[in-house]
């Protein structure tokens, strides 16, 4: 037996027969427009890779803004200088705002080995642990999010996203972005991967991710105080009415979830238990003692990010909102035939809060198909600010008429100019998507030719 380090970084001391590669949004013309504009209502292929191989890292950052009025900049120059004009509207230079729900309107889709259905289907934000379309800076082992001040805890705020979970594939990996918004959005991305010369083993477990939501959960007593004697007297043995995080069939292991809550009562939403039903169980063989306990906390949830558990958005950051995570990377939940991961929404499911989750797991193929809610049912709840009625002064035949007309004319010209700039970027996105696919094809062909050459020698 060879001596090998027990350090989890020990593989770095061994040379591998691997080709490293990347699909990215890099400007294929050699200029500095290193992002793609993803068209409204379209699906764009980011990477289409022939295996065997494994995706090792995904990084993304994005923006989605709506024009409210004309900027004072030349549209051609503005389109080439920066992807986003980070100038406050109050300065009068630009007039635009972030779409507050675009993280939920955009889907990330991953398909392995030419299955007819995806193994990953989730809103882009929730996949990377951006719950409620509201980024919070945190660091865990498989995911990180970083947002600068002013963007953190803001609906639609920009942030940098990383995923380090390995995603193996034997025949083919296809990663797509589906923009179900009514406007385009900008996407910078890296998809780092490895290509292998030999096929993966039959026991390979493939990465999966699924998003779910109940808005609201079906509670039988949302007006009853948690931990009251009346609520605590109710028994729940078989998990009836529990929120379902994941239902999967096959052989594999569950590795965790992120969990977003909008809480409606002036109370505590997390008194429910986690319950795992493995291989067709009617009663859970793994049961917990409360949501804060499942997420590795106690006496409520604290604002902390640890490698395997933590809070990304805490109720003290944004009242009524919580985003937490728990990753079973060193303690995965194994199943041979099926798994059902559930949580009580309040003890015995008495609360009716808005819950959503992204579940992550690995299993062998083929897998059971799953879908996702339509876009209008994915958008998060947001506080509504009532605008007061404002007097609308009639400017006809007044000195203000000329000013109002000039502003409207400049607005029309600016939008027409930006539409032309945008159309060029959309054309580049479609062209560069094909370029990424072709680059991956050439790399695979290079490896295949090298193998044939070595055999001939």
Give the topology, please.
Elements: E1 18-24, E2 36-38, E3 43-50, E4 53-63, E5 65-69, H1 75-81, E6 95-98, H2 102-105, E7 106-112, E8 120-123, H3 124-127, E9 138-139, E10 143-146, E11 160-163, E12 167-169, E13 172-179, E14 185-196, E15 206-214, H4 229-232, E16 243-249, E17 252-262, E18 274-278, E19 286-287, H5 291-294, E20 309-313, E21 321-327, E22 333-335, E23 338-343, E24 354-363, H6 400-456
Parallel strand pairs: 8-15
Antiparallel strand pairs: 1-14, 2-14, 3-13, 4-11, 4-12, 4-14, 5-6, 7-8, 7-13, 9-10, 10-11, 15-24, 16-23, 17-21, 17-22, 17-24, 18-19, 18-23, 20-21
Structure classification: alpha+beta
Which spans have pLDDT < 50 for at least 5 consecutive residues? Answer: none
Q: Helical region count?
A: 6
DSSP strand (E) fraction? Answer: 25-35%
Oligomeric composition of the shown chains: single chain
The beta-strand count equals 24
Order of helices and strands: EEEEEHEHEEHEEEEEEEHEEEEHEEEEEH
Compute the average pLDDT: 93
Report Rg. Answer: 25 Å
Largest sheet: 10 strands, mixed
| Fraction in helix | 10-25%
The dominant shape is flat
Termini distance?
30 Å
């Amino acid at each position: 037996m060879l001596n090998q380090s027990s350090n989890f970084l020990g593989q770095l001391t061994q040379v591998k027969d691997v080709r490293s590669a990347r699909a990215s949004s890099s400007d294929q013309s050699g200029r500095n427009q290193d992002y793609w504009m993803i068209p409204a209502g379209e699906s764009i292929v980011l990477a289409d890779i022939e295996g065997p191989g494994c995706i090792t890292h995904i990084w993304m950052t994005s923006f989605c803004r709506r024009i409210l009025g004309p900027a004072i900049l030349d549209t051609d120059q503005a389109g080439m200088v920066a992807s986003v004009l980070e100038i406050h509207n109050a300065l009068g230079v630009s007039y635009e705002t972030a779409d507050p729900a675009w993280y939920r309107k955009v889907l990330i889709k991953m398909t392995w080995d030419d299955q007819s259905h995806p193994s990953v289907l989730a809103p882009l934000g929730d996949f990377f642990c951006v719950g409620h379309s509201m980024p919070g800076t945190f660091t865990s082992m498989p995911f990180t999010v970083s947002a600068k001040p002013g963007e953190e805890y803001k609906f639609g705020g920009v942030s940098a996203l990383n995923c380090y979970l390995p995603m193996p594939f034997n025949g083919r990996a296809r990663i797509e972005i589906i923009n179900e918004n009514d406007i385009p959005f900008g996407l910078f991305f890296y998809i780092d991967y490895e290509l292998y010369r030999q096929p993966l083993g039959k026991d390979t477990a493939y990465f999966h991710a699924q998003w779910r939501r109940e808005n609201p959960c079906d509670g039988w007593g949302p007006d009853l105080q948690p931990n009251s004697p009346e609520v605590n007297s109710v028994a729940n043995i078989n998990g009836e009415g529990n929120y379902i995080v994941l239902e999967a069939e096959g052989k594999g292991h569950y590795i965790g979830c992120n969990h977003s809550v909008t809480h409606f009562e002036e109370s505590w939403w997390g008194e429910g238990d986690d319950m795992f039903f493995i291989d067709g169980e009617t009663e859970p063989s793994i049961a917990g003692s409360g949501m804060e306990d499942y997420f590795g906390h106690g006496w409520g949830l604290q604002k902390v990010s640890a490698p395997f558990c933590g809070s990304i958005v805490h109720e003290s950051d944004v009242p009524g909102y919580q985003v937490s995570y728990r990753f079973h990377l060193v303690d995965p939940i194994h199943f041979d035939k099926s798994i059902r991961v559930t949580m009580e929404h309040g003890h015995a499911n008495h609360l009716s809060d808005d819950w959503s989750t992204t579940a992550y797991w690995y299993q062998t193929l083929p897998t059971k198909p799953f879908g996702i809610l339509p876009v209008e049912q994915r958008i998060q709840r947001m506080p509504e600010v009532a605008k007061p009625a404002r007097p609308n002064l009639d400017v006809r035949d007044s000195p203000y008429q000329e000013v109002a007309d000039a502003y409207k004319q400049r607005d029309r010209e600016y939008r027409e100019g930006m539409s032309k700039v945008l159309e060029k970027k959309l054309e580049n996105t479609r062209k560069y998507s094909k370029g990424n696919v072709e680059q991956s094809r050439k790399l695979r062909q290079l490896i295949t030719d090298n193998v044939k050459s070595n055999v001939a020698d």
